[in-house]
């Protein structure tokens, strides 16, 4: 675990530096409250590991990794407003702590800081812009048109969660100056991991308790949100098997990519398994 902790520390230190530099101080404090309150840092870890897997230095991917985490947190702020969730990671959500207006400004601020980090590389800007279009389409679809089949649900999960996972991996490969084919392959791996993550998230929302999750449980059913257990007739165990299938597909994709750092790849394999087995 020390291996991963060192990489997470790189991300955490850079996050603190970026957020501390935001002006005015009140906004900086709100952004810190949103981002530094916790989180698994899965997406930025993917960026660093992919960078290393193709022979890059993780230091070269830190800014892109931090940018992905800022975009992710910005999306959570908006999600909590839409869902009227007053808890996030065991603490008051942004709108609950600051009010709706300041929370929206905080979300905008996080996106602005993220794109300042991506702006050094044209390929990075394209990867993240495409992911944010997908994310926006997913959020709109979730509100406007409940998926009516497992295939439609999977498409929603790909947009809502898979797209940003994909961008995280692509950014890591871009930071290592990988070729387009390698960038695409790692993106496909991460997209499938992201879909598995979302399916498992839906299962946990239906089966775990709020203390375990650090946020309200049963929220998908209460808000009539399109989780896999709402859209299909699958039991939680069967839905988890769907997540396992996505993770297995991600692992198959990963095995086909030429790599230079086997240890980093081994942690990417572990991640594909973790998203299915996690309990929070």
UniProtKB/TrEMBL annotation:
| The UniProt record lists the keyword Cell membrane | no
Q: Which cofactor does it need?
A: Mg(2+)
Q: What is the lineage of its organism?
A: Archaea, Methanobacteriati, Methanobacteriota, Stenosarchaea group, Halobacteria
Q: What class of enzyme is it?
A: transferase
Similarity comment text for this entry: Belongs to the FPP/GGPP synthase family.
Q: Which residues cross the membrane?
A: none
- From the UniProt record, which GO molecular function terms apply? dimethylallyltranstransferase activity; geranylgeranyl diphosphate synthase activity; isomerase activity; metal ion binding
Pfam families of this UniProt entry?
Answer: polyprenyl_synt
Protein name as catalogued:
Polyprenyl synthetase
* Superkingdom to which the source organism belongs: Archaea
Gene coding for it: fps
PANTHER family linked to this entry: FARNESYL DIPHOSPHATE SYNTHASE
| Keywords linked to the UniProt accession | Isomerase, Isoprene biosynthesis, Magnesium, Metal-binding, Transferase
Q: What is its EC number?
A: 2.5.1.29, 2.5.1.1
* One GO term (biological process): isoprenoid biosynthetic process
